[in-house]
Design a protein that fits this description.
The complex is a heterodimer of chains A (about 110) and B (about 120). Chain A is about 0% helix and about 55% strand. Chain A has about 110 residues and is mostly beta strands. The model of chain A has no long low-confidence stretch (mean pLDDT about 95). The chains are: A mainly beta (about 110), B mainly beta (about 120).
Chain lengths: ~110, ~120
């Protein structure tokens, strides 16, 4: 079974631009979560989707948004990019949004903001 | 609020030596506990998890961890490390879902970089 895939793997943008990242979960998984990883802040939760509904959101500004499609694929969007948005963005999928379900992570998208 | 503290940011060790990576957590409610590993330029891979039952949990690649509720710790151990274990290791917690709504996000520690030297 294929793992979680994220596209693109690398992205370079300039301040003020917007960006969209994509995540395809493992087949059959309906829950998708997004995390931001930076050297300073570590791994921080962005949001979680299940059945096309955002069920949980981390402490990030409104510039960060996401959505989930009927096939469980998810996208996240960051508008008006800032230098501090440079990070590795990780997507994780699980069968359902329960605490006991294992979250399987993709390889991430490395975003660099210049 | 919940938090996870990984006491060592870097742990150098020689090949075939034992290793312990320390993790302490703080939470006013019950949590589940996880250890993930991240190899360079890759995502996170689950090593093991504690949900309930025996406090000694065995995971992949020869790793094990012991849940100690009184000390709120979940230290990761391996009796003999290999060069291939060089990676960053993350301890994480998730709330028990005893109430409505999704509380399923992982709360991570800052990570411990394990460096195995020949």
């Amino acid at each position: 079974k294929a793992g979680v895939t994220q596209t693109p793997r690398y992205l370079i943008k300039t301040r003020g631009q917007q960006v969209t990242l994509s995540c395809s979960p493992i087949s059959g998984h309906r829950s998708v979560s997004w995390y931001q990883q930076t050297p300073g802040q570590g791994l921080q939760f962005l949001f979680e989707y299940f059945s096309e509904t955002q069920r949980n959101k981390g402490n990030f500004p409104g510039r960060f948004s996401g959505r989930q499609f009927s096939n469980s694929r998810s996208e996240m969007n960051v508008s008006t990019l800032e230098l501090g948005d440079s990070a590795l963005y990780l997507c994780a999928s699980s069968l359902a949004p329960t605490s006991t379900d294992t979250q399987y992570f993709g390889p991430g998208t490395r975003l660099t903001v210049l | 609020a919940q938090s996870v503290t990984q006491l060592d940011s870097q742990v150098p060790v020689f090949e075939e030596a034992p290793v312990e990576l320390r993790c302490n957590y703080s939470s006013s409610v019950s949590v589940y506990l996880f250890w993930y590993v991240q190899y360079p330029n890759q995502g996170l891979q689950l090593l093991l998890k504690y949900l309930s039952g025996s406090t000694l949990v065995k995971g992949i690649n020869g790793f094990e961890a012991e849940f100690n509720k009184s000390q709120t710790s979940f230290h990761l151990r391996k009796p003999s490390v290999h060069i291939s274990d060089t990676a960053e290791y993350f301890c994480a917690v998730r709330l028990h879902m005893n109430y409505g709504g999704s509380q399923g996000n992982l709360i991570f520690g800052k990570g411990t970089k394990l460096s195995v030297k020949p």
